[in-house]
Specification:
about 525 residues; alpha/beta; Purple Acid Phosphatase, chain A, domain 2; seven-stranded mixed β-sheet; six-stranded mixed β-sheet; 12 helices; 19 strands; about 20% helix
Length: about 525
């Protein structure tokens, strides 16, 4: 049965009362506020839409989740210390390299799996949720142990987020030689910045509890995977070179920038040679062979939806057909590194053929990147890249694309994409991440909506983590703590705007349709 309190039109989660104060800001709980009714958006239809609108035959009813960021928080080849450079604009595209809540990511994802499993019917059109789409960045650092945890979370099984030795070895340990990071067990000397400056809690033992193995029920519905930049490059930015691959399974973890690093070239140095950033002072950690980087073919084998052709040739774009709707999953990852996306001529020509084959069926496209973040110019040879304007010409060409689902920017955004050559167009729906505030997913319902109309109904979904996190002992409390911490992260939390405006959340999106 659906828990109505998890659906955004019934309840909305917002910043709660101040729990503690620090020298730089206040730490707040999370509270429930009144839900938001669905609002209509008419940018792609004419003035008669309201009179013609009705809920008719349901064509698709699905869940959309994205940017899970399953994270090995103890990996030697993560670069948390770069967070110290947050005031230097030359490092901006490399941030964040660490989040206070990321050790609890797996519990937040499991809580969302439970929430989605509990939705028996779409809240607007009333049809069962039959498919989930996970649009990329399921992992954080392109490591095999992260991929295994993602598979256990979404398919069901025992989740093992821990790695390395018997004890936690990472930037949140009490003795780590940097006070920038939240240390829930307390610091050996003084207080860390997050506790002293922002009132973050003291919760001894929470890391051990968060990283202990636990079972996930897995999604009850089939799911489609999508290739994201964090599945290809280190922390979503740097090419996994042989030297970096060796460091991932090694026993040296750096804690500071190397002396003499060229700050003006920091971004491109990290993109091409991320191991350069491992040359600074380090501490010894327990090596773990399970941290090795996975290949694209291994990702394709471990995710769902990919075809036999994908497994054979290593491509990560494919078609998934239902009896009524064609789903097309694109690969917008730039193998030359960098966070933003690109798409080459070969894939666009393939897309054009698949759209023509679809005929009068409605088409839903999924990619990791938004159309506005498909501007990565880094090249690794091969066919020429297609810019967003050329891509849009192809997408509009057959007039059958109605929806484009994506993620990447960790924010809720709904944008109309009208056809500049005539009537019609499609809706681009971007869903926020599970790793950052507001830690949500969406239900997406596609249905006939009257004479000459289709409609897409979007409803935000909160996971079932507890609002009263207590001592963060039970799984629901750990998931709730993850969300609470995410809300209190400076710049990226409650006041960041990542939850979007009301018209980016619970909306009904009609568009003209003449099959």
């Amino acid at each position: 049965m659906t828990d109505p309190s998890l659906l955004g039109h019934r309840r909305r989660l917002v910043a709660g009362d101040v729990v503690r104060s620090g020298s730089r800001g206040e730490y707040r709980g999370v509270r429930a506020a009144a839900g938001e009714a669905h609002q209509f958006r008419y940018e792609l239809t004419d003035g008669s839409t309201a009179q013609r609108f009705r809920i008719g035959r349901v064509l698709a009813s699905l869940a959309h989740l994205t940017d899970l960021h399953v994270t090995d928080v103890q990996s030697p080849a993560r670069f948390e210390f770069i967070n110290r450079e947050y005031l230097d604009p030359r490092f901006r595209e490399l941030l964040p390299m660490h989040r206070p809540q990321e050790a609890l990511n797996a519990h937040a994802i499991a809580a969302m799996v439970r929430a989605l499993n509990g939705i028996d019917r779409g809240p607007v059109a009333g049809a069962p949720i039959e498919l989930a789409i996970m649009s990329g960045d399921g992992v954080d650092n392109a490591q095999s142990n992260e991929l295994s945890s993602m598979a256990a979370l979404l398919d069901g099984g025992e989740v093992r987020a821990d790695s390395g030795g018997e004890r936690y070895e990472g930037v949140q340990s009490p003795g780590w030689p940097d006070d920038l990071f939240w240390k829930p067990d307390g610091a050996v000397k003084g207080e860390d910045l997050m506790r002293a400056g922002y009132g973050f809690p003291l919760l001894p033992g929470v890391l051990e509890r968060a990283l202990s193995a636990f079972p996930s029920p897995g999604l009850r519905m089939p799911w489609l995977g999508c290739h994201g930049n964090h599945e290809e490059v280190s922390q979503g930015v740097g090419i996994v070179t042989p030297d970096l691959a060796s460091a991932m399974v090694g026993f040296h973890k750096p804690f500071r920038l190397p002396d003499g690093i060229d700050r003006d070239a920091a971004l491109e140095t990290f993109v091409r040679w991320p191991e350069t950033f491992m040359a600074g002072p380090d501490v010894p950690v327990t090596p773990d062979a399970a941290r090795r980087p996975f290949t694209r073919k291994e990702f394709i084998a471990g995710a769902r939806g990919f075809t036999a052709s994908n497994r054979e040739d290593g491509t990560a774009y494919y078609v998934h057909d239902t009896s009524v709707v064609r789903f097309i999953v694109l690969d917008t990852v730039c193998i030359a590194g960098g966070a933003d996306g690109c798409i080459d001529e070969d894939q666009v020509r393939w897309l054009q053929r698949r759209l023509k084959e679809a005929g009068h069926r409605p088409v839903v496209i999924t990619s990791h990147h938004t159309l506005d973040t498909m501007d990565n110019k880094r090249r690794a040879g091969g066919p020429r890249y297609i810019n967003a304007d050329e891509l849009l010409e192809v997408v509009h060409g057959e007039g059958n694309v109605v929806l484009w689902l994506n993620g990447h920017i960790h924010a809720n955004v709904v944008r109309p994409r009208p056809n500049p050559r005539g009537k019609g167009g499609f809706w681009e729906v971007t869903t926020c991440s599970l790793v950052d505030w507001p830690c949500q997913a969406r239900t997406v319902e596609l249905f006939e909506a009257g004479d000459g109309l289709l409609a897409i109904a979007c409803t935000m979904v909160d996971h079932d983590g507890a609002l009263d996190t207590g001592d963060a002992i039970e799984p629901a409390q750990l998931a709730g703590l993850h969300r609470e911490l995410a809300g209190n992260v400076p710049v990226a939390g409650f006041e960041s705007g990542r939850d979007g405006a009301p018209l980016d959340r619970n909306v009904i999106l009609p568009l003209a349709w003449h099959p």
